[in-house]
Amino acid sequence: MNIRLATLQDIEPIMQLVKQVVPIMQATGNLQWDDTYPNAGVYTSDVKAGQLWVAEVDGKLAGVIAVVDGQEPEYAQVSGWDITEPAVVAHRLAVSPIMQGKGIAAALLHQCEVVAAQRNVELIRLDTNTVNRPMQNLFLKLGYNLGGEITLNKRPGLRFMAFEKRLA
Q: What is the pLDDT of residue 156?
């Protein structure tokens, strides 16, 4: 497996991956993503900002994650969280359905730790839909701690579980 920064040439394969993942998410009741989000414009912005990473297996795109600076303002809903504290935040994590269960999501989340260390940041935060139990379980397995349940203005009507991991 190779983890690398995404390029603009990766946008089409990423969108193909998303088109495979969204129906599976929705079939389990996870409405976090749909046919409007995430979209090519979001991923293009991530690439241009140097914050989108892809996992390749045998030269084929297997997963994607955005690793960004700056926390969601809604993270302030979590008791005890200071959203002004420097943190790396993971967004838009997806793994090809045919590649799930092979450690790709864990490798992409490990890339968050690599990026955080490079930036001298000791905190990673992320969130997932309350019904996305497999992702929640992965976060816990990788040492993330549940902060609490939040809402996100950009996804009205949905609830999310917010997690954090301190690296030091």
A: 86
Q: Tens of pLDDT along 12-59?
A: 999 999 999 999 999 998 888 998 999 999 999 999 999 999 999 999
- Cα 123 from Cα 85, distance rounded (Å): 8
How many angstroms separate the CA atoms of 145 and 142, rounded?
A: 9
Look at the block and give the residue holding tokens 């600076």. 69
**E-only strand ranges, the chain:** 2-5, 52-57, 60-69, 88-95, 123-129, 145-151, 159-166
Tokens of 40: 């090519």
Q: How far is CA 66 from the centre of its chain?
A: 6
Q: Tokens standing for 46?
A: 């991530």
